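Hey, quick one: can you model this chain's 3D structure?
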Amino acid sequence: MIPTCGSLAEALSFYADHMGFAILWQGDGMAGIERDGVSLNLVVNDNQNWADNASFSIGVSDLDSLYDEYQPIPARVGPLELKPWGRREFHLIAPSGVCFQFYQRAAA
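Sure thing. Here's the predicted structure for all 108 residues.
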């Protein structure tokens, strides 16, 4: 569950218009979104402490392209870097305060 820390409409606009998620369903105070096989649920909740401490780690197949896509969006996008533990990744903090960590998924 991802807290919106604002209206559901504003959160859906950010995730759909800027992060490329499709809206799968929407109900009273909740919605489901999906992109490239990753499904998430949004819930209306104004608990900033929850949002600031929420973190999601998502493996992707083309990290460089996603990083380029997310650079100009209205979010805090950290550097794409090789971490000491050997994984390439970057962090994106949404306007709500929720943190997403994107990393290069190993080839199958």
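One thing worth noting: The mean pLDDT is 95.
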